[in-house]
Each structure stands twice: as structure tokens, then as C-alpha cells.
Amino acid sequence: MSTGFFEGIEKVVYEGPDSTNPMAYRHYNPDEIVMGKRMEEHLRFAVAWWHTFAWEGQDPFGGQTFVRPWHPQDDMERAKLKADVAFELFDILGVPYFCWHDADIRPEQGSFAENLRTLNEITDYIGEKMEAGGPDLLWGTANMFSHRRWMGGASTNPDPDVFAFAAATVKSCMDATHKLGGQNYVLWGGREGYETLLNTDLGAELDHMGRFLNMVVDYKHKIGFKGTILVEPKPQEPSKHQYDFDAATCIGFLRKYGLENEVKLNLEQGHAILAGHSFEHEIAVAAAEGMLGSIDMNRNDYQSGWDTDQFPNNTPEVALAYYHILKSGGFASGGTNFDAKVRRQSIDPADLVAAHVGGMDICARGFKAAAAMLEDGGLETALKERYAGWESAEAQAMLGSDLGSIAQRVLDDNVNPEPRSGRQEILENYVNRFV
User: Fold this and answer.
1) For residue 215, what are the contacts with CB-CB under 8 A and spacing of at least 6?
2) What does the note under cofactor report (predicted)?
């Protein structure tokens, strides 16, 4: 039985690039074969429960602008209505996956026991909808940043009782994710950082965070969860400095605490921008270390100082991101989660649909450009030519040598290299042929 929330909105279908229908896919054809696989299987789109259904339209300077039938989000009846609407949107869009935080799908009850009860109840309800033909769960996670109990952090909190509450919360969310057949479990430390070093024991907090993550991995194996554990980098906001600053910082953290073979990264476009990086940089760093897991697709407003989480609309940026994903072998358990929200003035149900349609189309368009570049091989050929000198036996032997021997060869052979062009503009022009 329909909730009526999306009344009058038909199921979105692929109409091709010449379509002018704002509620149709122009580039996303889930059955199109690209590099030997259906586009849906490559992109693995997911809808985020938090921004799409739980967010009420607040920003740093203003309150609620959305008035939904499930507001206020404070009891199980409205939580179930929200789930009903969610699965209606999943069906309209034809997405294969969704994602959630515990606080998105259940009302906050104050005590852990009550939160656990409502989490179990709502995930049973969601499970029934999945069994009836709904999409699968890409990943679940715990919201350990919104409630006031988390203001000093979760696993990094100076109060051991908060650490304990965090451990119990993550266990419950991992259990729920496992129950629903989730393909990953994500940890984002929204408050795992500091506002001032005046009251922070940074070393102790990092050690506690490392131990916490080891407990998560141990529990994954204990319950037989076959999905991937992911951590999500972000440099700041809400904290002044977060310990999961960027991909490189997270990789160093994982290696320090012996987790490099157990945990991968969930990378977000908006977080990359806040860290002063491009999305393609973060993906390339993770891929180079074999730690690329999944992505949160969105964008930030380059004129704004906070994480605006807008839907993607820049094909060249998206194309280069998917180029590095495809080059590394594509997604395994991960996918493309739209960690994105409509603008606070976009108050109609149709806006939720149109935003996802546009985001999925931009991703499909960029993905096809990335696949075409990879199949053409122009960038890979240029890369191979630039580093061709390292293929010689002499160059490889130098890597196993020492400074003194190398210096002697420079003297004996009168080595005096001339610089060679990096050909950046030529390569940029090459990319522009595809996007």
C-alpha cells in the first residue's frame, strides 16, 4: 500500500541522451554493458537514509525547512512510515542498495537498552521489506556524533563510560548490519578529534581509537560477518582536527595499529575537498595501498567553508574519480553511496527524486568517459613512456644499491640529465576529448 508521499511520480526509466524529461535517466542505463559488466554492477548506487529521509533542512544558521509526514522523528510509528517512504523511493529510482546510521532509522530513546530495542524492531521491519523485493544494504554505521553524549568523542572520549556506550552501540549496529546482509560496515569518527590541545591527551586518544577498531575487527570475525570494515576520512568539522584527516593519515593509523589487512577506506568527495585534496587524489592514494573500499559521492560548494553535501554535477571530476576506481579493478564490496542532500529550499518530494536522477546520470556519464579512457589507453601509454627509464636493468639495480655506489656511477659516466616535459596540457586536452 502506497504512503502517497510520491503521488504522481512514476518509476524512473532510461530514455537516452536526447531526453528532456527531468524525471528520466539520460546516461544511466543499468543494463548497458561497459567493460564486460552491467553498468548497475559497476556503479552499485546506494541512497543514504540520513540526508534523504532523516535530515530536516537545517544549516549552521537556520532550523528545519522540511515538513515531512514522519516529523517529529520521535516514535516507532513514524520511523516505520519513514521506512515505507524510503522503499518507495528506492523502487522509483531502481537503486540496488541503501545505507543508514542507527539514529536515522530509529528514534533516540536516551538509554542504550531502549535504543537497542527500537533498532532491532526497525531492522526487522526493514528486513521484511528487503525480502519482499527491496534493495540490499550496502553498509550500516553508528551515529556517534549527534547526541550530546558524544560531544567529547566516542572511542576517544576522556570518560570511559562513553567509550563503553560507543562499544555497545557499534556492536548493536554491526549485529543489525549482519542481520540485514550488509556488504560493509563503516566507522566515521565525527567527533574523534579535538577542539583544543589544552584539554586533550592526543596520544592516549589515538591508542584508545586504535584499540576500539581492533575490537571491531575481532567482533566481525566472531559473528562471521563477511563484509568489509571501512573507515571514512575527514579533516575537521565538527572537530577542529579529526584523527582521520585524509586517506594517507588513515592508512598510517591503520598500519600503526596492525589493521592494514583488515580495514579499507570509504572516501567522500566533500571530505577530500575539505582536506585540500581532489577526490581523484584520495582514491589514487587508497588504491595504491590496496585500501580502496567504497565511496560517498557528493560535492562541496567551493565558496563555502563547510561540508555542504550537494549532489554531484561536475562530469570531469567524476570521470577522473571513476578512472582511478576502474584502474584499480573496480568495486568489490563497495559502491557509490549518495551522501548528498537537496538544498533546504528544495522542499517537494519531486526534488528528492530529481536530485538522485541527476546524480546518477552525472556518475554514469563520468563513468562511461572513464571506461573509454581506460580502454583507449592514452593515459596509461603516456605514463609508461614517462617512467620507461626505470625498466632498464641498471635503473632497477640502483634501487638495491647505496649512495656511494650511485655517486661513483654519476662521476664515472658523467651523468648530467636534461629535464623532460611532463606534457600536462597535452594530457588535460586528452581527457577533455572524453568528457
Assistant:
1) 167
2) Binds 2 magnesium ions per subunit.
